[in-house]
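Risk register update: the risk that structure generation would not scale has been downgraded. Supporting records follow, first protein first.
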Amino acid sequence: MEQWSEGVYLLGRYGDLMTGCWLLTNGASAAIVEVPPHDVDQWSPAIAAKLAAKQLCVNVEYILCSHAHGDHLSPETLREFQRAFPSAVLHVHESFEPHVSGIVSTRYFQGVVKLGLDGEALFLIHAPKHSWTDTFIVFRGAAFTGDWELNTIRAVDDEHEENRVPLETKLQSIALLQRFPDEQGYVVHQTFSSHANERRDNVDFAALMEDTKQDRQFW
């Protein structure tokens, strides 16, 4: 378990693509971010989460996911989390429904939803760009960006028509995120990639979103 900021812990990185599994905590409450597949020689992230929750004396109330790609959302890992935390609810955007229906207890949202962990705000924002299920998870001023490609309007799946998010939808997502701080009276000052391979501190979130409208190559 590695603490990335106040109340934000990286439990480990799992599977071939090294997707992070995270624990968010405040008071006695907690949420899981990402339910990735794991190698056969790795402990399940659900076991790591159970040990961490016991160590920190918190109760996991929510299971969250940034998007429904297979390296972030594993049905088997979801079942393992259900067994580890039977009272926790998977809370995801309605676009996840084909991917999670019938697996665990699930609550769906539309647009933007404000949850809470012992009084600390926890926001879920549906913002398609990398995929149709993209969800920003915002907690303690940090935004989990999933696999969003920052500083460019492009996405890795743009070449595949069946998966491509149209430009108009991407721009709508960026506009929603730009409005979010003013509409909620909230400051976003950090961004974390779900893979734990990029962290940005002291972020000007509005400027970052504006710059993400630019058409740049990835490398």
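Supporting record for the second protein:
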Amino acid sequence: MNILIIEDEKPNANRLIKLLAELREDVHIMGVLGSVEESVNFLTQYPHPDLILMDIRLGDGLCFEIFPKVELHCPVIFTTAYDEYALRAFKIYSLAYLLKPVEKAELKEALCMYDHVIQETNPNKALDQLVDYIKSKSVIYRSRFLLPYKDGYKTILVSSIDYIYSEHKITHLVLDDQTDLIVPFTMDELEDQLDPVCFFRANRQHMIHINSIYSIHNYFNGKLKVILKNPLAGEIIISKEKSGQLKAWLDR
């Protein structure tokens, strides 16, 4: 089995190599890469491995930056110290999401998953099976936020959010009582974490809750203008390309 390790911390990479050697006799480590740039260069120049063990936070960014640049032909086991990327990870060919320090038993179980889905001689059929397996996983969307407050923390229920906006690369939650709160997530991360039945990514700066909409109006060039119930929200313009998605979302 050819395995590629994408991990920017040498002790963690060495631990994975040691565990793999203990679990499988047929493992060949194709390389250890520590950055998005290295990974893209490798995967575009060399044959893809059978499996990738991939850290999420790398030296030059998040590993998710790799996937728009490379069409992967193998599954991924994510290894990370952070649990907030799990939903985003499972949208990719992810077999497992292991939190550091990776335990031998958890890695063994993940490798067994690989054996289970990659059992056909036809690689395309095996990959289709893998995709079906991943899609069958139940997705649990975020229901609350735990945010710093004075000398402690407070819980914000997702159901109390009217809309979300980004300004100067800072993400804000606006609640139904017009409270404006800053959260340490990007809009892309929140789009993955929040239930798409309730939230719609209107544009790069706005995400709206379905119950926050007051009215929708035709705009020029096929665009739509959305007015929210919150008087502080202002007008939100939906592009021509996204107008159809908005209508479909509201017409479920």
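Residues 10-23 form the longest helix (14 residues). On this basis the risk owner (M.S.) recommends closing the item.
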